[in-house]
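Format notes (please read before filing issues)

Several people have asked whether sequences and structure tokens are stored in separate files. They are not. Every record keeps both together, in the order shown below: the sequence lines, then the token lines. Line labels are part of the format and must not be stripped during preprocessing.
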Amino acid sequence: MVFGTWFLPTFHVQAKIPEAKILETTVLCHEPGRYIGWPTIMKTHSGELVAVFSGNRDDHVCPYGITQMVHSSDNGRTWSPPVTINNTPLDDRDAGIIQTTAGTWVVSWFTSLAFDRPHFYEKHPDWKRHAEKLGPETRKRWLGSWIRRSEDNGKTWGNPIRVQVSAPHGPIQLRDGRLLYIGTTTFNGKHGIGVEESRDDGKSWQMISKISIPPTDSVNLYYEPHVVELKNGRLVAMFRCQARDMSQRFLGQSESTDGGKTWTITHKTPIWGYPPHLIQLQNDWILVVYGVRKKPYSERACVSQDGGKTWDTDHEMMLTRAIIEPNRTGDLGYPASVQLDDGSIWTVYYEVAHPGEKPSLMGTHWRLK
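Then the structure lines:
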């Protein structure tokens, strides 16, 4: 007897198409006549949302930036007035924040003397007077990258701790308890991308590796990285690449499978924008958010459904379209995200909220459909 041949059916699993449903776009903090920039957001163990940023500024570059913080205890419906964390003698910029498994809040930032230039003093003579008061000891003491720790939920802060690397959104915590901080640094006086770790809840830091770029690229074009640890332990880092050709400013990426000790050589992604902030969502997708400083100027998001191997740029999501005025073309972005227990996402960034204003701390509450 001859039996017919049986074929098992082939099933093709179609990837879900990401789409953003915008729930709300709002101003989290506005300081009249002042400039706000470069925020990060976290969700605490108790469910509170906390955002930090550089506030009370004259402009994108100035001597007066300070690290400030706002919080929300109702999932972002209302936000507190700003509280100052850092006010060093220099310009305090780019604030990051995490809460460790021990409950410690860790804030990162860097200080700058970029305002100390003759061409700025023509318009801002008070900046020159401020700079003249900064002696060489003060400049040496405060110039650099820093973190501060709070063990009482942001009520008080420990002394600043110097670190060797710098990145807008600061360190993350790994599942093995270490804090990992990827950022720009110097190796033998030359620019590079370094990886620091802390094994004592942020009290001390050690450089453990560096990330290499292709020999055809210039490392001077790579900076402002961020990293995410996936549930399988794989690390995915992304970088701003400030290519001289604006059309080539795609995010770079590198991966590590040994906890950050070694990294793949960076490779270009199809995502145009900068800088990146990464989280892994409840459905295991990776979400990256970034600013787009070309028409249409905006804050955008993209997902990877395969652990960062590919990015769905065909379904890039626009979270908000920016107000762009002639004198502030492209001055926006540095978005960062956190996912709430209900699956929705808060993404914070800096943008002009209304024509004629300086940038405010803004946020978009949204969810993936």
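For reference, the curators noted about this record: Helices lie at 118-121, 125-132, 136-142. The two ends are 54 Å apart (CA to CA).
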